[in-house]
Amino acid sequence: MQFNRIFRDAGVEGAGASKLPSLADLDDPNFKPATPPQEEEPKPDPVEGLDAEGNLLEGYTRQQDGTIAKDAKDPQEEEEDEGGEEEESSVTPEEFYTAVSAQTGIEVNVDFGEVDPLSPEGVALRDLALVQQTRHSFEEALKTEYPRAYAFFLHNKEGGSDEEFFKAPAPAVIAREAFEADMDVQESWIKKDLLKKGLSQTIVDLQVKEYITQGTLTQQALKVYDQVVREDKLRLQEIQTKEAERQKAFESSVQNLSQEISTTVKNGMKSLVPETKQAEFVNFVMNHIQHDGESNFFAILPVSKEQLATTMDSLYLQYMKGDLSKVVVKEAKKQTVQRLKLGASRDNADKKKNVGDPDTSKKFIPLSEI
Questions:
Q1: What are 291-300's contacts with CB under 8 Å, separation 24+?
Q2: Residue 228 within a domain
Q3: How many other C-beta atoms can be found within 10 angstroms of the C-beta atom of residue 321?
Q4: Looking at CB atoms within 10 Å, which of 118, 130, 295, 306 has the fewest?
């Protein structure tokens, strides 16, 4: 009995506490066997584009093969997204070019007009202004420090030859103090001055020897020096005056040409340029105009593989002296031939239907239709 009691008694922890039911548990009509713990299935790896419940997220698309793909983003939206960070650290064009000038030490005055200063066109405008400003600074430095070299520069700019320039008296290439201390230079200048006046070499040598004997060589040489300096200054002023007149005439001719082009675009062309395109077309034309350095302007057309056909069309129209009536467009010619064939076919059909009827069909194509 002791043995049976042991097996029928519930365990210390109560019925059903052990893994296997006891005899007491089996005799209990309300006994429910304990459910063994179930091992949880591993959660699937998260899929990009789906939420925890498997729903499609915004910005993703389910492809035909069942895969999830991210929608292609609009480049403009990407720029706007990136622009948020840029706006925080962006600087104005004035601040940007001030920083550039601080690095180079060069201040550049530029009229950008309606062009964005930070665009490629704006940077190109500043580069051109910098080139012009550098050239002006060079000429000013040359005028101040090397007046003779500046005179030669202007002389060549006006189309003068080297031979014409160097026929002038010897330049004052050294300072007055250095000239006074160099007897050889004084003698050379006096001889050149006397020879220029038409004296023979023998007379010149005797005259210079007399100056040396009398101790007046430096005095006579300084007279020549001062005369050469005066003549050099006068000559430089004359060249500068001519250059100023030439520049003024050039600027005036450019202004007149610009006005004539604007007037021609509005009223003088055989082609009709829409009013909204006139200013843009005038600017296009002016950008293709070049000056030959004398008095002539030329329209320069690009010659490249991509634009060759357009350039040839423009040159052919110029070759025909702008006579549009003599210019045949390939597409128009093709359409004309098709119309002639169609007209001939209709004529033949009408003749077969009404042999006795008067011929009222159109047998020609008016020039206006061509």
A1: 291/250, 291/254, 294/159, 295/253, 297/253, 297/257
A2: yes
A3: 7
A4: 306
Tell me: do 336 and 306 sit in the same domain: no
70 lies in some domain: no
Structural domain includes residue 365 = yes
The answer on 352 and 308 residing in a single domain is: no
Say if residue 183 is in the same domain as residue 246.
yes
181-235 pLDDT per residue, tens? 888 888 988 998 899 889 999 999 999 999 999 999 999 999 998 888 888 788 8
Nearest to 185 by CA among 224, 128, 215, 134: 224
Same domain, 176 and 253: yes
Which residue type is seen at 71? Answer: D
Sign of the Cα torsion 247, 253, 256, 258 reads negative
Please tell me the total number of residues recorded for the chain in this structure: 370
Domain count, the chain: 4
Token duo for residue 73: 């983003």
Report pTM. Answer: 0.41
Looking at residue 366, its pLDDT comes to: 45
Q: Are residues 186 and 251 in the same domain?
A: yes
- Check: CB of residue 122 under 8 Å from CB of residue 112: yes
341 and 313 inside one domain:
no
Query: 298: which residues sit within 8 A by CB, 6+ positions away?
Result: 289, 290, 291, 292
Q: How far is Cα 153 from Cα 143, in angstroms, rounded to an integer?
A: 10
Tell me which DSSP letter residue 269 carries.
Answer: -
Classify residue 155: in a domain, yes or no: no
Residues 322, 333: one domain? Answer: no
154, 239 contact by CB (below 8 A)? yes
- Give yes or no for residue 295 having a pLDDT over 80: no
pLDDT computed for residue 222 by the predictor: 92
Owning domain of residue 20? 1-27
Give the Cα separation of 320 and 270 in Å (integer): 13
Phi/psi at 42 (5° precision):
-65, 135
In this predicted model, what pLDDT tens digit does every residue of 306-337 receive, in sequence order?
Answer: 888 888 888 888 788 777 777 666 555 555 55
**Position 238 pLDDT exceeds 60:** yes
Same domain (yes/no): 338, 320: no
Confidence of residue 40 (pLDDT cuts 50, 70, 90): low
